[in-house]
Amino acid sequence: MTPDDLKALIRTIADFPEPGIQFRDITTLIADGEGLKASVRLLAERVEASGAQAIAGMEARGFIFGAAVAVELGLGFIPVRKPGKLPVETIGIDYALEYGTDRLEIDPSAIAAQQNIAIVDDLIATGGTALAAAQLLRQAGAAISHAHFVIDLPELGGANKLREADVAVDALMDFEGA
Predict the structure, then answer these.
(1) Distances from the Cα of 164 to the Cαs of 27, 34, 72, 127, 174, in angstroms?
(2) 98 catalytic, yes or no?
(3) Catalytic residue among 18, 89, 98, 176, which?
(4) How many domains does the chain have?
(5) Which domain holds residue 168?
(6) Considering 61, 72, 103, 138, which one is annotated as catalytic?
(7) Residue 105: which CATH number?
(8) What's the pTM value of the predicted model, to 2 decimals?
(9) I need a labelling partner for 178 at 20 to 30 A (CA). Which of 26, 47, 87, 98 fits?
(10) 61 is catalytic
(11) Is 158 domain-assigned?
């Protein structure tokens, strides 16, 4: 399957979660066995070319694609979690949302010094979560130079924020409009 074939599997839901938003729903992609397999394979090819030694994915949909890519490449997976979900001492970062703040945490002992870790997630929109994850992983000692996504929403500027933080951004497809 090509990226265009995969794009056709993404469902758009108008006015969710609020009026004017075009929500790009990956549920229909991950429910399609061939589509999921192809998207993981394409992401894995791109991650492998970036020289990653491990994969990090943000809760929750980053776990779907990140863990699958890690398995495909025989690499370890670093879960970037919501607060209070890890049973060990963690490090965390608070980051801004449109209305308020959120927090991400990781187990720093899962990361080797200067380990080249690629971020994998389903979608890059405003970039707040991905940028916070990159900062947190770097704080733990990782080298973060690449982030890979199934979908980019370029009008929301998240990919540019990551690039400004010296993280190369790659997506299998993009959708115009918010």
Answers:
(1) 30, 35, 29, 11, 19
(2) yes
(3) 98
(4) 1
(5) 39-174
(6) 61
(7) 3.40.50.2020
(8) 0.95
(9) 47
(10) yes
(11) yes
